[in-house]
Design goal:
Blueprint (H helix, E strand, L loop, with lengths): L13 E5 L17 E3 L6 E3 L20 H10 L4 E2 L7 E5 L1 H14 L9 H14 L2 H6 L4 E5 L10 H11 L4 E4 L3 H4 L4 H4 L3 E3 L14 H4 L10 E7 L5 E4 L2 E4 L1 H13 L6 E5 L11 H9 L1 E6 L9 H8 L2 E6 L15 H4 L1 E5 L40 E3 L5 H5 L4 H14 L15 H12 L6 H12 L1
Parallel strand pairs: 1-4, 1-5, 5-6, 6-7, 7-8, 9-12, 9-13, 13-14, 14-15, 15-16
Antiparallel strand pairs: 2-3, 10-11
Helix pairs in contact: 2-3, 3-5, 10-11
Length: 469
């Protein structure tokens, strides 16, 4: 149900700064969502001429897994909090999403560029950001009342990579950052400043019916006694490798997925844990089938992938399956802090002490104060986003997991399922404010709470000095 009120936003106004307004002065083409098509299998954007699938087979843009910024823009536009006066706005939402998605489509269609190669859409984004920095509105509070929404874990492409991260980590450090995993900003030396207004959100989940995006959230939850499968996991496991000079990055999460599938895949007739890669003897499973299998399963594994975040976390909640976080490294936990998702109540946590089969690094259990990972793919800081030491179960090897899952009391299972049901709507995305609250409601509330009237440290000192005079 659409509503039009967010308590934290009452009395505040939000301006949407579409970076396309600066395009003409730089001779940059205007961006359009019709320049990309969305893969029906995974919700990822591709260029229109890519042969992977036909344009007419593509998903509606609202179901792209990285379309969260679009949903937020639409919700703000249709709310009573939107303003057309940037100078008087309490909050400025930076809308770079169209060019960002075009860049992502180029990466998926053509491949990533080496550091010395030009990335077209990336090259377009940089001057647009610089024009934003030159506005008097940005300079008023050094961007402290601006909000950025970065829906993909890594902008690592071509000659713009270092310049992009310089902006992100230094120039934008006082702004609010909405991301899909902590590692997107943990790489910044200014992480502890950024973390004050950092929000970790879900990916936009898929849908069994593209004409009814909320259909899966509205499906009744299958009673525990009617579930035929004990444990389910289905995803790609083939690791990606980013080969840069003197810096080879292997996606550890995919290696872990493969090892887990090997350890658990034959651990019982009611265990369905497999990789979908044909190289590993797997095959693609349509989304509707995945949802059907998860909804009839008691436990669903939450594992990291190329990075710590994965869309499947949202879909596990959507299906009404009890999440099982297995690590290290651990998958991202969106809305664990800002959105009130009670993962301890809804999920199970298992820590494998013999993890050297998939990770060489020594894991840490809290974010270091003075040491930053060099890249979002560094897994040694993929830790739970909330403390779980009081509930995590220690196991030596992966195959010990099943004995624990098979002996959990029914009363505990009932409590977990009740918590999943109570929170699953928070993983949904709609292009308007809803009741009960969706991810968009929660994001807007957080924006209005921390994104306005928060001057950067230097400007706060200046204001205090002026007041003293």
């Amino acid at each position: 149900m659409a509503v039009n009120e967010i308590g934290a936003c009452e009395g505040k106004s939000i301006y949407i700064l579409d970076l396309g307004v600066f395009a003409e002065e730089h001779g940059i083409p205007q961006c359009s969502y019709t320049d990309v098509k969305i893969d029906p299998g995974n919700g990822i954007p591709y260029l229109l001429d890519h042969p992977r699938f036909k344009i007419e087979q593509g998903l509606p843009y609202a179901l792209a897994q990285h379309s969260g910024p679009w949903h937020l823009r639409e919700a703000i536009t249709g709310s009573k909090y939107v303003t057309t006066d940037m100078d008087k706005a309490d909050i400025v939402y930076v809308y770079d999403h169209c060019y960002y998605m075009l860049w992502l489509a180029q990466v998926h269609s053509i491949g990533r560029k080496l550091p010395e190669e030009v990335s077209p859409a990336g090259e377009w984004l940089m001057p647009l950001y610089y024009s934003m920095l030159n506005t008097t509105r940005w300079q008023r509070q050094n961007g402290a009342d601006f909000v950025f929404y970065d829906p993909h874990p890594g902008f690592t492409d071509g000659t713009v990579e270092s310049a992009y991260y310089k902006l992100l980590c230094d120039d934008f450090q006082h702004a609010m950052h909405i991301v899909v995993e902590r590692g997107q900003r943990n790489i910044c030396q200014a992480y502890w400043e950024i973390s004050k207004k950092l929000m970790i959100v879900p990916y936009v989940p898929g849908s069994s019916d593209s004409t009814k995006p909320l259909l899966d959230f509205e499906q009744p939850i299958l009673p525990l006694e009617e579930r035929q499968t004990l444990l389910f996991f289905r995803a790609t496991c083939l690791p990606l490798m980013y080969m840069y000079p003197n810096n080879t990055r292997i996606t550890t999460g995919k290696v872990m997925r493969h090892d887990v599938a090997l350890a658990l895949g034959k651990s019982g007739p009611n265990v369905d844990v497999m990789c979908t890669d044909k190289e590993f003897g797997g095959r693609f499973m349509p989304f509707a089938k995945v949802m059907q299998r998860m909804s009839s399963t008691l436990f669903c594994l939450v594992l990291p992938g190329d990075s710590a975040s994965a869309r499947r976390t949202s879909e596990i909640f959507m299906a009404g399956c009890i999440p099982v976080f297995l690590g290290p490294p651990f998958g991202s936990m969106p809305l664990a802090e800002e959105g009130g998702i009670d993962y301890k109540a809804s999920s199970l946590f298992f820590n494998v002490t013999e993890y050297r089969g998939w990770i060489d690094d020594d894991m840490v259990w809290e974010i270091p104060r003075d040491k930053r990972p060099s890249h979002v793919c560094n897994p040694w800081v993929w830790i739970p986003d909330i403390p779980v030491t009081d509930v995590v179960v220690q196991i030596r090897t992966v195959d010990e997991l099943m004995d624990h899952l098979r002996t959990i009391p029914r009363s505990v299972l009932d409590q977990k399922l009740e918590a999943v049901m109570a929170q699953r709507q928070k993983f949904s995305f709609q292009p308007y404010v809803t009741s009960p609250p969706s991810a968009i409601n929660i994001i807007l509330s957080r924006m209005c709470s921390v994104g306005s009237n928060t001057p950067a440290p230097g400007l706060a000192l200046e204001a205090a000095g002026a007041a003293a005079v």
